[in-house]
């Protein structure tokens, strides 16, 4: 799949090994998701368009450098997407953060939109969706649909872990959206969770697991 980039960075693999572990505590889960997100963002931003900047003064002489051309929007998908926001903002501090809330209905496994904080008019040229897990692909597809309907065609999608089935479904629905993933697992369980996966990262990030 040409639109999908799977990280080959050894630190991503190392940190994923710790993140998957069921004994990893919420504080470390948050730290690991942040660190993996930071590493993935390096790849996400590698092909961003540049333009000539206004001349400035260095300590020795006038120079003309380059700056990012596009207005960038970060789209964390609530809840778990919040775990990637700080990593993305560390790389793109000028970006707008625009929230979408979409959950997967437990019986049908279909996405349900419950929160949308996009402005009435398109305010960015490029969107980077932050959603740590792509399972069935339904939420990812719905998010891309919403952003395209809003008027943005330049979209990238960042996830820590994805299922192969979910990626296949997403690429079929949105072949023009570049996906950057930390890993891809082959399995999905009966509840639509990636296996072995990372569990419910929303619960694990915010210590909301029911014991």
From TrEMBL:
GO terms for molecular function: GTP binding; uracil phosphoribosyltransferase activity. Keywords: Allosteric enzyme, Glycosyltransferase, GTP-binding, Nucleotide-binding, Transferase. Its EC number is 2.4.2.9. It comes from the Eukaryota. Its cofactor is Mg(2+). Pathway: Pyrimidine metabolism; UMP biosynthesis via salvage pathway; UMP from uracil: step 1/1. GO terms for cellular component: cytoplasm. Residues 7-207 form the Phosphoribosyltransferase domain. This is uracil phosphoribosyltransferase. It comes from Dispira parvispora.
